[in-house]
Amino acid sequence: MINKKIGLFFGTFDPIHNGHTEVAQYVVENCFSDEVWLIITPQNPEKKFIKISNFDQRFKMAQIATNKIDKVKPSKAEQDLPMPNYTIDTLEHISEKFKNYEFSLIIGQDNFEKFKSWKSHKKIIKNYKILIYPRLGNDKKPEIEKFENIIHLKGATVDISSSGVREKIKNKKLGKNYLNEDVLSFIIENNLYEK
Question: Mapping DSSP to helix (H, G, I), strand (E, B) and coil, where does residue 137 land?
């Protein structure tokens, strides 16, 4: 018996920004999920050669960003799993651990366009709902209607990226409209993204 619907939002969250939290809130507020778990990824298979902040710093920023947001929380579910972290492996691990929960996957439209390259993508789409949020400037509708388990989120457009935020911090163009103020303070205190 399913007693809770959980949206899983995977990412490096380096750093977590307002776009991430707005999507998570949208999913909960519009009843697509009862809760959203932000799965902090130790190593994204597509970003093996990109330098990222350490796991604890990224998890702490996610905690700070969500501590006043009801039903949205960061998760260490991937921390002790073999790397690189493939989504299907984590989904199966979490599904086995929480058998009474129904899990869905939250991803950006830009990521869905690369979805066919993911490990066991057919298995994911068969067994899990996929909630796709649009990215600004990305007007493609990638085969959404062909799959029963696809839900296109219309009101949660993200027009910023973590890489863009890092670049702004590096260039001393800190934009408070991109980040939770306490996350920004954490970044400054820990000298993140300055090099």
Answer: coil
Contact 139, 89 (CB under 8 A): no
> Does residue 142 have a cis bond before it (omega within 30 degrees)?
no
Residues 72-88 pLDDT 10s = 999 999 998 988 889 99
Instruction: Tell me the DSSP string of 52-113.
Output: ---HHHHHHHHHHHHTTSTTEEEE-TTTTS-SS--HHHHHHHHHHH-TTEEEEEEEEHHHHT
Cβ(150)–Cβ(126) below 8 Å:
no
Tokens of 75: 């998760």
pLDDT reported for residue 175: 63
Q: Are 105 and 147 in contact (CB under 8 A)?
A: no
Of 138, 96, 108, 104, nearest to 46 by C-alpha is: 108
- What is the spatial distance between Cα 16 and Cα 55, in angstroms, rounded to a whole number? 12
Provide the 10 A C-beta neighbour count for residue 79. Answer: 15
Instruction: Please indicate, yes or no, whether the overall pTM of this predicted structure exceeds 0.70.
Output: yes
Cα dihedral 177, 158, 129, 16 in deg (nearest 10): -40
Contact, 97 vs 37, CB < 8 A?
no
Q: Going by C-beta distance under 8 Å and a sequence separation of 6 or more, which residues neighbour residue 126? A: 149
- Averaged confidence pLDDT in the chain: 87
The helix (run of H) or strand (run of E) holding residue 21 is: helix 18-29
Contact 37, 75 (CB under 8 A): yes
